[in-house]
Amino acid sequence: MTEEMRISPSRASTLSQNLTSVLSRISSASTRCTPSRLVAVSKLKPINDILALHQPPHSHLHFGENYLQELLQKASLLPREIRWHFIGALQTNKCRPLAEQVGNLWCVESVDTVKKADELDKGRRRLWEKEGEERWNEERLRVCVQVNTSGEEEKSGVEPGDAASLCRHIMEHCPRLKLQGLMTIGAIARSRGVAEGKENEDFVRLMEVRDGVAKELGMQESELELSMGMSEDFESAIRCGSDEVRVGSTIFGERPAKQDAKIKNEVDEGKP
To answer: Shortest CA distance to 49 belongs to which of 39, 36, 63?
Structure first.
């Protein structure tokens, strides 16, 4: 399927320039040897765009999606080498099919209840049973516990004080899951209004929560990643120690309305 897909050269060039710019900004903001991981958030964007960045010269691997059905369609059409991240609000009844049907699902970043963790574990068990446990034993499904650091009611996530208990449950009762770390969606208004020399308090708070969870569970802080920062504030997040940033519109441009989104764009041969 991907071999037959045409990619507009002009669109590919724009995406390449955007990705290069974001990677450069990540490198500049980083204070450690290994730059933060970039998840290119491709929700509501066609698979042509994803393939343009996955192919050389970039060979980008990590892409993020918000909707189960869209991810299922894209994963079935694109190379299995892609490492998918599910970053959207997750309904409990969608957890099992998500973990079972997307074999190259690299991480689910929005786990905020015990039930969701349990259902993801059951889904991954079914996948192992179908494809052979030996193949998947070394690839437990990574998960991040989402923490609501801003206190906004419309946002998902556990309360900061409840993060450790959910992390403990995943480690002790979900053998097919690997606790990757903690995730938050910081309040954009706080990033925009922060004083010079200061950082978004949501990012600082997640770092504090991570340190507390690590202490309570007897882990090194470095064993729990921080996933925070999006298009408008990823450099601030990196300065606060983020191991991963999720950037969409800065790479792919403005998104269409959900009802107007296409899984695949038809590109006429010979057109730029």
So the answer is: 63
Q: Does pLDDT of 201 surpass 80?
A: yes
Torsion of CA 147, 149, 154, 155, to 10 degrees: -30
Locus of tokens 């450069």: 24
Q: Is 132 left (phi over 0), alpha (psi -120 to 50) or beta?
A: left
Residue 180: closest CA among 152, 139, 150, 151: 139
Exposed/middle/buried for residue 105 (C-beta within 10 Å: 0-12, 13-18, 19+): buried
Q: Which residues does 203 contact at the CB level (< 8 Å), separation at least 6?
A: 149, 184, 186, 228, 229, 233, 236, 237, 240, 242
| Per-residue pLDDT reduced to its tens digit, 85-105 | 999 999 999 999 999 999 999
Tell me how far CA of residue 86 lies from CA of 38, 91, 120, in angstroms. 14, 12, 12
Residue 2 has pLDDT above 90, yes or no: no
Task: Check pLDDT > 70 for residue 189.
Answer: no
